């Protein structure tokens, strides 16, 4: 469940994937099921205004009302394809699609949680380099989802509080998979949470969820 907005999680009842590893057990324990999209399977045409991905991964990132989508950075399949979204300077969200040298990427909770821990380590390194004053975990990492019914995708999730120049900034990290790559989303809040920011985040998460495929 997100730090900034509260959403129910449910997914479609059909699975066309041959195997999804440990995540199948995770979902069954919680009365959820696996989204019906197979890796490499057909996908719907991208919505108007969608940003196409790089040549090495099929991807279409949406244009979301109220959000300004930045220019894409393509650093290759290992380092990643990076796109930033900004909601009027109040929320920043960055999408990373990458491989990071992992040979067989799948929706295994242990694999996803390792990527979340790697993101936390990167924040602590930024603190040591002087970019942040402090990095504080707001509870342990856990399994959550990107999006809400009926298009939620299982994701590892971590919330932290970053202190920069004396100001505390809540931050969330989600990691799931997309067509054999990791799909990471980092969200930072620069204003007090409100109904407006909750709606904006819900819209962003749900529309990004439509762009993700197992």
Strand content: 25-35%
Instruction: Please write the string of helix (H) and strand (E) elements.
Output: HEEEEHEEHEEEEEH
Number of helices: 4
How many domains? 1
Q: What average pLDDT do the residues reach?
A: 83
CATH class: Alpha Beta
Gyration radius (Cα, Å) is 16 Å
Structural class: alpha+beta
CATH homologous superfamily identity: Mog1/PsbP, alpha/beta/alpha sandwich
Protein topology:
Blueprint: H1 22-29, E1 51-52, E2 60-61, E3 68-69, E4 73-74, H2 76-79, E5 81-87, E6 91-98, H3 109-128, E7 134-137, E8 142-146, E9 153-164, E10 167-178, E11 181-189, H4 195-211
Antiparallel strand pairs: 1-2, 3-5, 4-5, 5-6, 6-11, 7-9, 8-9, 9-10, 10-11
Protein model, in words:
The chain is α+β, with helices and mostly antiparallel strands and 214 residues long. Helices cover 23% and strands 30% of the residues. It has a single domain (50-211), classed as Protein Transport Mog1p, Chain A (3-Layer(aba) Sandwich), CATH 3.40.1000.10. The chain has four helices and eleven strands. Strands 3, 4, 5, 6, 7, 8, 9, 10 and 11 form a nine-stranded antiparallel sheet that branches. It has a two-stranded antiparallel sheet with strand order 1-2. The radius of gyration is 16 Å and the shape is globular.
């Amino acid at each position: 469940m997100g730090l900034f907005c509260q959403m129910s999680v449910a997914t479609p009842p059909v699975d066309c994937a041959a195997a999804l590893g440990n995540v199948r057990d995770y979902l069954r324990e919680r009365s959820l099921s696996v989204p019906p999209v197979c890796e490499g399977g057909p996908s719907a045409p991208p919505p108007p205004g969608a940003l196409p991905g790089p040549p090495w991964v099929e991807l279409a990132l949406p244009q979301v009302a109220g959000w300004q989508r930045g220019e894409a950075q393509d650093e290759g399949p290992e380092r990643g394809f990076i796109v930033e979204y900004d909601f009027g300077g109040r929320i920043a969200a960055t999408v990373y699609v990458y491989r990071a040298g992992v040979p067989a990427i799948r929706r295994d909770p242990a694999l996803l949680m390792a990527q979340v821990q790697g993101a936390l380590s990167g924040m602590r390194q930024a603190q040591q380099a002087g970019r942040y004053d402090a990095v504080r975990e707001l509870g342990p990492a856990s399994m959550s989802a990107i999006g809400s019914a009926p298009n939620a995708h299982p994701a590892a999730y971590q919330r932290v509080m970053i202190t920069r120049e004396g100001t505390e900034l809540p931050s969330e990290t989600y990691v799931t998979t997309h067509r054999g790559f990791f799909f990471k989303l980092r969200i930072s809040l620069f204003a007090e949470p409100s109904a407006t920011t909750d709606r904006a985040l819900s819209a962003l998460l749900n529309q990004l969820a439509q762009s993700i495929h197992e």
